[in-house]
Amino acid sequence: MQRLFERVESVPVNPYISLRRYLYTVQQAYVHAKQYQRKGNLEREALLLLRIATLVQKTVSKHPDYSKVQNANIIKEFRLYAQLAIKRLEEIKPLIDAQQNTCETLSTAGIMREELLPTILQESVCSATTSPNTLSSFGMKARTMQLNEEMLFVFESMAKKNTKNNRETCGILAGVLQNHLLVVTSLIIPKQTGMSDSCEMLNEEELFALQDKKNLMTLGWIHTHPQHPCFLSSVDVHTHAGFQWILPEAIAIVIAPTDRQRIGIFNLTHPGGLEYTMQCQQRGHHPHPERVPKGFLGEGKLFYENCHHVELIRDHSIRYEVYDLR
């Protein structure tokens, strides 16, 4: 287990990200881990549990607000999630070791089983084929994500007033894991503030409470660009990095009414854009090169790209709910 822990990358602390926002990330990661536990997906569960423990022990503990008295209750919550993660990891350690030993035996026999154990949990014994639909750093194939296309137009309609006033609107795409498919079943519009070039969610505790009650995973987010092209700004890239750190398949949808493209569905390259963004300490709008600079993991790759794993469903086979918390 120590070897597995060392293989999970630590995230440099960003003092501009609040402890509350870090806590929301940990909470969401734990919700996802519990989903994987229920589905019997040991590999992805272990990966998220390791990331929770790493984030709390190596990142959050270095935050400048960590030792402030007024944050004592938040720190207790961080420690609780870390303890829960470590306890569960201790429970599944024998299973992980058994799978790893089995994989090594099969590898020696010349039998490569990609689905047996992702490379993030071993010393690259079972290799994964790289393709547009492969999360190469995790050694896992990207699962298909499905959402009802109608949901995009519903969101655009709900954002119409803000769009008319040149203010961005954002929403959360939440859903469930069904037979190895990620299915968006809910559009949640949280309380927020919007400007011409950014939007910020407020009262994330209310958002988390709703998702926890409905047992919903965060699968991505959606927002408008009232007067800007259909792309991810530096602020968008940083926002999305938090979602994709939890769920590699997480998507960022942009609706830009004035752009010829109008709708874009993106995610960060990995390795590449995700790693570079997670270590970037700048805030607000700032220049990002179009491609990952030389010397960084994934150098030469685009920062983000159009998603290859998303299916827009045009019939009513996928039902969805809309929750407006504003």
TrEMBL record:
<dbReference type="GO" id="GO:0061578">
    <property type="term" value="F:K63-linked deubiquitinase activity"/>
</dbReference>
<keyword id="KW-0479">Metal-binding</keyword>
<dbReference type="GO" id="GO:0046872">
    <property type="term" value="F:metal ion binding"/>
</dbReference>
<dbReference type="InterPro" id="IPR015063">
    <property type="entry name" value="USP8_dimer"/>
</dbReference>
<dbReference type="InterPro" id="IPR044098">
    <property type="entry name" value="STAMBP/STALP-like_MPN"/>
</dbReference>
<dbReference type="InterPro" id="IPR037518">
    <property type="entry name" value="MPN"/>
</dbReference>
<dbReference type="GO" id="GO:0070536">
    <property type="term" value="P:protein K63-linked deubiquitination"/>
</dbReference>
<protein>
    <recommendedName>
        <fullName>MPN domain-containing protein</fullName>
    </recommendedName>
</protein>
<keyword id="KW-0833">Ubl conjugation pathway</keyword>
<dbReference type="GO" id="GO:0140492">
    <property type="term" value="F:metal-dependent deubiquitinase activity"/>
</dbReference>
<feature type="domain" description="MPN">
    <location>
        <begin position="145"/>
        <end position="274"/>
    </location>
</feature>
<dbReference type="Pfam" id="PF01398">
    <property type="entry name" value="JAB"/>
</dbReference>
<dbReference type="Pfam" id="PF08969">
    <property type="entry name" value="USP8_dimer"/>
</dbReference>
<keyword id="KW-0482">Metalloprotease</keyword>
<dbReference type="GO" id="GO:0006508">
    <property type="term" value="P:proteolysis"/>
</dbReference>
<dbReference type="GO" id="GO:0005768">
    <property type="term" value="C:endosome"/>
</dbReference>
<comment type="similarity">
    <text>Belongs to the peptidase M67C family.</text>
</comment>
<keyword id="KW-0862">Zinc</keyword>
<keyword id="KW-0378">Hydrolase</keyword>
<keyword id="KW-0645">Protease</keyword>
<dbReference type="InterPro" id="IPR000555">
    <property type="entry name" value="JAMM/MPN+_dom"/>
</dbReference>
<dbReference type="GO" id="GO:0016020">
    <property type="term" value="C:membrane"/>
</dbReference>
